[in-house]
C-alpha cells in the first residue's frame, strides 16, 4: 500500500477526503437549488461533512456556485437543516457566478464617473432607489388559477362556527372536514370560491361560508440573457415580468428594454416592451408568470442619442421602425429654447468610414417621417436669446432689460421720469445709443443727455429708437470710482465707520456702495463698445474713438460720434475736476503723411471757449485732449496737531507752509507744552521704515537659505529665524522725524521744516521722568533727579540681565535724538550725556550671548525705535 502510494497512487486518506468533498458539493447544490415545491432537507451528516471541509475547499465551492461561505454556514445553522429559499430571492447558486469584468454582471450605472450618457429606462431597476417589494401579500384577483401549494382560508358561520386552512395537495385536492375532498387545482380562485360555498350550503344546513386566499404557492422561474443576476428564482405565483426583472437586478448595459420575452416550454408566449409602461403607462402586456417560465432578455438591437434642447436628452433604444418623430416623442419633445429649423443629425456614412452631419428642419413633416438608424445622434441647438423687435436698456436704471420696439419709440418712452425710472446716482448729462447698422453687425453711436431727453420729450433732444438699439445710461463718475475702489479692495467701508459720518456723507457712502454703481460705470458699459469699434475699423478705415486725460472726472477712451466736439468729449468724461486749469488745454491730432508716416500735431485751445457748444472745436479719429491741473493744487492737504497747543485739531495746509506757521494758526504752544519732547511723524517716512523692515526680513531669509544650500555652519535654528522675520514683517513704522522745535519757534528757518499732507505733530505735557527699557530686570519710569547718573537709573531698575550688552547702552532723548554715552561718537556728543526730562535709556541684548542671536542687534534697533516713539507720546 505504501509502495503504491509512493509510486504515484492515491493517498489512503484521499478517497475519504474526496467523498467528503462530494458530499459537501451535494449539500451545497441541494441547499442552493431547493424550491418550495420540492424542498430538500439536508441531513445532519451532510451538514457536518460541509462543515468539516477545509476553509479553502469551502471558499472554492462557494465561489464556483456564486455564494458566500459565511451566509451558507449561517443558513445551515448550528447543525440544523437548510430551508427553502424566501419568496422573491434568486436561486443564483444554480449558475456559477461570472467574472467581475463581465458587463452583464457589472452593468454601467447612470451615475458612473465615466461621463457616459444614461440610457432611458435603466433607472427603472435601480436597486439603490427602488421601492419594489415582493408580492407575497398582494390582493389575489378572481382569475388567479390555483395550483399545488396554494392555501385557502374558509370561515364558517351560522349554526356552526369554524375556520379552516385548506392547502391544495399534490393530487390537486383539499380535504374539507365534514365535506370530504374537493378538487381545486386548475380552477380559478373565483370558481373555487363558488364551488366551496355551494358545497357548504348543500351539505351543511344553516351554515354560510367566506372563502379567501391564504399563503400563495411559490413558483420557480428562470431569468436568462442580459439580466444583472441570471439564474433560478423562487417567486410568488402573482409575479409579473417587471417584478421578476426587479428581483434579478434589472438588465445589463447591453440588455434590451423593448423585447423582453417570456418562454414557456420553449415557446415564446409573450413579449414585453418597457417603453409601453414608461412612456404610455400601458402595463397590459406585463403578464403574470407561471411555474417553469423563462424570462429572456436579449441584447438590444440599436440605440439613438438625443442631445441639446429636448426635455429628456438621453440614449433611446430602437425597436425597429421608429421615425424622427418617434425619437423626439421618446425624448419628451423640444424645449421652448430649441431651434428646430437647424438640428444636426450625425450618422455613420454608407461607406462606414466617416460620420455624416445632416441638417434637419424638425418643423417639416418629411423630416419627422425620416427613419431613425441605430447609432444616430440628434443634436437640437438653442435658438439663442436675440430678440428681433426689441430695444435693450442698460445701466443706472431701476428696470434694465429688453423692451418691445414700435415705430416712433423714443428714449422718453423708456425713461419717463427721473425719480421713477433712474437710480439716484444716474448721470443725466451723458448717455449713448448703440445701433447695429448693417449685416456685418457694425455699430454706430449716438450721444444724448438723458435729463434733457426726459424734460423735452418728443423733441430733437429725445432720440428716436430703432429695433435692436441698446441704450446705455451711466452712473456718476465720482461714485463709480468709489465703488470700483471698494470692489478692488482698496477701500473698506465698515458699519462702525459709517456711524461716525455725518448724515449726508453716510447717505453718499451707502449710495456709492450699491450694486448698480459699478455695473453702470463708464468702464464697464463702454468696454465692449470700444472693443467693437476697434474691431470694425477695417480696410484702412479710421477707428471711431477719441480720448481724454488729465483733470476730468472720468479720463479714458470714448466713441467718436458724428460731429463730436471738445465740449461733448468733456461731458462724456463726466465734466471737469475742480483742479482743472481753465486757461488752455492741449489737443493732439494724428495726421497721415506721404509715405504712410503718422505725424502728431499739438495745439493749445482756450478751454473756456471750447466748452461752449457753439464754438467748440470738432474732433477726428484718435484725437486726444489733455486737460491740465492747476499747479500745486492741494485743497485737501492737512496736518494734525494734538497735545499741548491752544487749539488742537486738523488744519488744511498749502504748499510752502512751515511747521511754525501751522503752530501759530493753532494758537501757539500751551503753558504746559514740552517743546523738547515734541513728536513729529510723516506718513512717507513711516512707509519707508515699514518697507525697510520687510526688506530686512527677506534678507535674513535669503541668507539662511543660502547657508543651507551651501552647507555652511549655521547655529541659528529655523524657529529663531521665523520668529525674527515675523517680528520684522509685523513691524509698522511710526515715521518719527527729528526736529528741534524750540529753535524752529525761535525763528531759525534752518530748523523749521515745510509740512506735507498727512503730517502729525504731538506736543506732550511737561514731564520730569526718565524711562529704562530693554535688558534690565525691571523696566520702568523713574523721577528725574539731577544728581543721579546713568548707572544709578540702571540700579533703580534692578540692574542688567545676563543677556544685556553694557557696551551698547544708548539714550533716546525726548526729541528722538540718540546718544551713546560709551562711545561719544554721535552728532550731539559735545552736548554731554547728562540725563534730562523725557529721556529713555535703552539696554540692548548682547549679540554674543548666543551665537544664533547675532542678527538680533539690528532687529532690536528697529523695534526699539518704534517703541520709544510710542513711549514718548504715552509717557510724556
UniProtKB/TrEMBL annotation:
Gene3D superfamilies: Outer membrane lipoprotein wza domain like, wza like domain. It comes from the Bacteria. Residues 304-353, 546-580, 640-673, 770-818 form the Soluble ligand binding domain. It comes from Kineobactrum sediminis. Residues 1-39 form the signal peptide. Residues 221-297 form the SLBB domain. Belongs to the BexD/CtrA/VexA family. The keyword Ion transport applies. One of its GO terms (biological process) is monoatomic ion transport. Residues 139-210 form the Polysaccharide export protein N-terminal domain. This is Sugar transporter. It is found in: Cell outer membrane.
Amino acid at each position: 500500500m505504501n509502495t503504491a502510494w509512493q509510486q504515484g497512487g492515491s493517498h489512503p486518506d484521499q478517497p475519504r477526503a474526496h467523498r467528503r468533498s462530494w458530499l459537501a458539493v451535494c449539500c451545497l447544490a441541494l441547499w442552493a437549488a431547493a424550491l418550495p415545491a420540492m424542498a430538500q432537507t439536508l441531513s445532519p451528516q451532510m451538514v457536518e461533512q460541509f462543515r468539516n471541509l477545509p476553509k479553502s475547499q469551502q471558499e472554492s465551492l462557494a465561489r464556483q456556485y456564486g455564494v458566500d461561505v459565511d451566509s451558507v454556514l449561517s443558513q445551515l445553522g448550528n447543525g440544523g437543516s437548510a430551508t427553502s429559499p424566501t419568496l422573491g430571492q434568486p436561486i443564483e447558486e444554480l449558475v456559477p457566478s461570472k467574472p467581475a469584468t463581465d458587463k452583464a454582471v457589472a452593468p454601467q450605472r447612470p451615475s458612473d464617473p465615466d461621463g457616459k450618457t444614461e440610457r432611458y429606462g435603466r433607472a427603472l431597476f435601480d436597486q439603490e432607489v427602488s421601492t419594489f417589494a415582493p408580492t407575497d401579500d398582494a390582493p389575489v384577483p378572481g382569475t388567479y388559477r390555483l395550483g399545488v401549494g396554494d392555501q385557502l382560508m374558509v370561515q364558517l358561520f351560522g349554526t356552526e362556527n369554524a375556520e379552516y386552512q385548506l392547502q391544495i395537495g399534490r393530487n390537486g385536492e383539499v380535504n374539507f372536514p365534514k365535506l370530504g375532498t374537493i378538487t381545486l387545482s386548475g380552477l380559478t380562485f373565483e370558481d373555487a370560491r363558488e364551488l366551496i360555498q355551494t358545497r357548504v350550503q348543500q351539505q351543511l344546513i344553516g351554515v354560510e361560508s367566506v372563502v379567501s386566499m391564504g399563503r400563495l404557492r411559490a413558483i420557480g422561474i428562470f431569468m436568462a440573457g442580459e439580466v444583472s443576476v441570471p439564474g433560478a428564482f423562487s417567486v410568488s405565483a402573482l409575479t409579473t415580468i417587471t417584478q421578476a426583472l426587479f428581483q434579478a437586478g434589472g438588465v445589463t448595459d447591453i440588455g434590451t428594454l423593448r423585447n423582453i420575452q417570456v418562454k414557456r416550454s420553449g415557446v415564446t408566449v409573450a413579449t414585453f416592451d418597457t417603453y409601453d409602461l414608461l412612456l404610455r403607462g400601458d402595463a397590459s402586456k406585463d403578464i403574470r408568470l407561471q411555474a417553469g417560465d423563462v424570462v429572456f432578455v436579449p441584447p438590444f438591437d440599436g440605440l439613438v442619442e438625443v442631445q441639446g434642447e429636448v426635455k429628456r436628452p438621453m440614449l433611446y433604444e430602437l425597436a425597429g421602425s421608429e421615425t424622427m418623430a418617434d425619437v423626439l416623442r421618446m425624448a419628451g419633445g423640444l424645449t421652448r429654447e430649441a431651434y428646430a429649423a437647424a438640428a444636426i443629425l450625425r450618422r455613420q456614412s454608407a461607406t462606414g468610414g466617416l460620420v455624416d452631419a445632416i441638417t434637419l428642419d424638425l418643423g417639416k413633416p418629411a423630416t419627422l417621417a425620416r427613419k431613425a438608424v441605430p447609432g444616430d445622434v440628434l443634436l437640437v441647438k438653442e435658438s439663442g436669446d436675440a430678440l428681433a423687435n426689441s430695444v435693450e436698456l442698460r445701466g443706472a436704471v431701476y428696470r434694465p432689460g429688453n423692451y418691445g420696439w414700435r415705430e416712433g419709440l423714443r428714449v422718453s418712452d423708456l425713461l419717463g421720469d427721473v425719480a421713477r425710472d433712474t437710480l439716484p446716482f444716474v448721470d443725466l448729462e451723458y448717455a449713448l445709443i448703440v445701433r447695429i447698422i448693417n449685416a456685418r453687425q457694425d455699430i454706430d453711436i449716438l450721444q444724448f443727455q438723458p435729463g434733457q431727453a426726459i424734460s423735452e420729450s418728443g423733441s430733437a433732444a429725445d432720440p428716436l429708437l430703432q429695433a435692436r438699439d441698446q441704450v446705455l445710461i451711466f452712473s456718476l463718475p465720482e461714485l463709480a470710482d468709489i465703488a470700483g475702489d471698494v470692489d478692488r479692495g482698496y477701500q473698506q467701508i465698515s458699519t462702525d465707520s459709517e456711524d461716525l459720518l455725518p448724515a449726508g456723507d453716510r447717505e453718499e457712502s451707502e449710495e456709492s456702495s450699491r450694486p448698480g454703481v459699478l455695473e453702470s460705470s463708464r468702464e464697464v458699459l463702454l468696454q465692449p463698445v470700444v472693443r467693437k469699434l476697434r474691431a470694425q475699423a477695417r480696410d484702412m478705415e479710421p477707428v471711431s474713438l477719441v480720448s481724454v486725460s488729465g483733470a476730468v472726472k472720468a479720463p479714458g477712451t470714448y466713441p467718436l460720434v458724428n460731429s463730436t466736439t471738445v465740449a461733448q468729449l468733456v461731458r462724456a468724461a463726466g465734466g471737469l475736476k475742480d483742479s482743472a486749469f481753465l486757461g488752455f488745454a492741449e489737443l493732439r491730432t494724428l495726421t497721415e503723411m506721404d509715405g504712410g508716416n503718422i505725424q502728431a500735431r499739438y495745439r493749445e485751445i482756450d478751454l473756456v471757449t471750447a466748452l461752449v457748444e457753439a464754438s467748440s472745436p470738432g474732433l477726428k479719429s484718435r484725437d486726444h485732449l489733455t486737460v491740465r491741473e492747476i499747479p500745486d493744487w492741494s485743497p485737501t492737504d492737512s496736518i494734525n496737531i494734538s497735545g499741548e497747543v491752544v487749539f488742537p485739531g486738523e488744519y488744511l495746509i498749502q504748499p510752502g507752509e512751515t511747521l511754525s506757521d501751522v503752530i501759530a494758526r493753532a494758537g501757539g504752544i500751551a503753558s504746559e507744552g514740552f517743546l523738547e519732547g515734541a513728536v513729529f511723524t510723516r506718513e512717507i517716512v513711516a512707509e519707508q521704515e515699514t518697507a525697510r523692515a520687510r526688506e530686512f526680513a527677506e534678507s535674513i531669509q535669503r541668507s539662511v537659505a543660502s547657508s543651507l544650500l551651501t552647507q555652511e555652519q549655521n547655529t541659528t535654528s529655523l524657529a529663531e529665524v521665523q520668529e525674527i522675520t515675523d517680528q520684522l514683517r509685523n513691524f509698522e513704522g511710526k515715521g518719527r522725524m527729528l526736529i528741534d522745535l524750540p529753535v524752529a519757534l525761535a525763528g531759525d528757518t534752518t530748523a523749521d521744516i515745510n509740512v506735507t499732507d498727512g503730517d502729525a505733530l504731538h506736543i506732550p505735557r511737561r514731564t520730569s521722568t526718565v524711562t529704562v527699557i530693554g535688558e534690565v530686570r525691571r523696566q520702568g519710569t523713574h523721577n528725574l533727579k539731577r544728581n543721579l547718573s546713568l548707572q544709578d537709573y540702571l540700579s533703580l531698575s534692578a540692574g542688567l540681565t545676563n543677556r544685556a550688552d553694557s557696551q551698547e547702552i544708548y539714550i533716546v532723548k525726548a526729541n528722538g535724538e540718540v546718544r551713546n554715552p560709551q562711545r561719544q561718537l554721535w552728532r550731539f556728543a559735545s552736548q554731554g550725556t547728562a540725563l534730562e526730562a523725557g529721556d529713555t535709556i535703552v539696554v540692548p541684548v548682547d549679540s554674543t550671548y548666543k551665537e544664533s542671536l547675532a542678527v538680533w542687534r539690528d532687529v532690536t534697533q528697529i523695534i526699539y525705535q518704534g517703541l520709544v516713539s510710542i513711549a514718548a507720546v504715552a509717557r510724556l
